[in-house]
Amino acid sequence: MSRDQKFLANDIPINGVTVFADRAEIRRVFDVTLIEGLNTVVVENVSQYVDSDSIRVDGKGSATIHEVKFKSEFVSEAEKDTPKVKALTKNLKELQAKRDDLEDELTLNRKKLHSLDDIIKNLGQVSLTGKDSSLITFNESVEQNLENLYEYHAKNTVELNSKIRTVQQDYNQVDEEIRSLETEISGLKIADNQKRSIYITLETYMKQTNAEIDLTYQVRNASWTPSYDIRVTTSNNNSLKLYYFGNIKQNCGEDWKDVDVMLSTIQPQCGTKLPQLGTMSVQFPAGSVDYQDQNVRIVSRKIEDIKCCPKTENNVLSTTFTVPQKKTIYSENSELKVTIVALELDPVLHFDCVPRRNFGVFLTASAINTSSYPLLAGMASVYVDSSFSAKIPLPSVYSGERFDCPLGIDPSIKVQYRPVQKYLQKSGMLNNYTMTMYEQKVTVKNGKAEEGVLVTLIDHLPKSADEKIKVKLYAPEIKPVQPYTGIGTNDDLKQLKAPEAGARLNDYHNLEWTVVLNPLEEKEYSIKYGVEIPPAEVVEYVEE
């Protein structure tokens, strides 16, 4: 025959909480006294959001754990309130009555104070001489009456304000006691006619011994999300400070009071941004097409026009952050913001423009995450030289990876994107191929009076999707340029470098042309290329 020991979950202190993206793991450690033979330890009134498959029990002492099981039992309305709950409910009603009395006293004193103020306010409309007149006849008697009235008003105003402050303090204290008692009753009460209990069966061969039970289980209705403050300084030496926050909230039915909190990344996390260009291909269309403009049909499949299904970002990050100092988080879905770490990084600032999409010149800060902390995807508030710039989504960034932080448009740099010039010419003696020439002129003006700038212009250069289609770039000349997206390996991290002057093709086969402008300088740049196709063929331009 086994001996049963029962504990209320709310009476067992929480030793630690590990918060995941969509749940939390609760750890409770408590001591039990065991006698020879089988012993059953029952933890009652566990949170209704408990995941029964997550329950684990470890222990210390001279005993063996034989079985751990979870039970959810129906209870009637009469059984829901234990004697302890009934006693606490009685205390709650007494406190609520006391709070009502204090509220009445506050209302009465405020009305008295308001009445005193009304007397002074309406004094000019009252005849102190007893005559039917709106004017006061000043004499010694009236003057004395006024002095007496002002003295009475001042004395009673001070007394009433003092009473109001005292009663308000008492009211706040009682209100806090009521809130604490309601939370305690909520933790003891059975919320939905289901009593959830954890049964732990242990065996010992000693006549009597003490053992330590280490109980962990996971609950839903708890989560944390990352957020960031990114502060960039552009004067003197460029700097980037990144503040990494964890935003915790829970409503799992039990308060976490004065506990150690850890944040785990084991669960995947599901205006001012520089426009992106896809790869522009020139190809023969499938099937017949309508002629639009001299053997050319342009098809633009914009990403924003495609209805996408929700996508989950695959993330193999598995890191646990320990929150400094113990925290108290109430079960009320309010959010607690804690600082995980503050990082100082060395950024590279660069100007980029995609004039085909937007004439604005975007300032971007690029940096490498040189810390050991993985940055999870989350919203970041960006500040430039102490002024708020934008709120942006920051993607996941591993240790050693580069990330870009858009800082907004610099209005002092102007770009003009002129209409493309296009003309046809024949090529080839025998095949009589058709060559379509395209010339795109871009004017850039640096409005800064004391600062030269590097600006990277990004535009399409069509990529042939068929060997019969020939694309040739005439201007600018493509030069080998060292990429500036270096990512370090081990402890030897390569430094980020600003883009070098010159033209190159990026991974999307788009032209990236970095140009240099002196203070107040204006220059015109020409992008020129030709597309050669066989006679009587039609091509289309598709951006993917």
UniProtKB/TrEMBL annotation:
Query: Which keywords does the record carry?
Result: Coiled coil
Which stretches are transmembrane?
A: none
Q: Which residues form a coiled coil?
A: 85-112, 164-191
Q: Tell me where in this chain the DUF4140 domain is found.
A: 17-113
Stored InterPro entries: CHP02231, DUF4139, DUF4140
Cite the DUF4139 domain residue spans from the record: 213-534
Quote any Pfam family the record assigns.
DUF4140
Lineage, top-rank taxon, reads: Eukaryota
| NCBIfam families the record matches | mucoidy inhibitor MuiA family protein (TIGR02231)
Q: What is this protein called?
A: Mucoidy inhibitor MuiA family protein
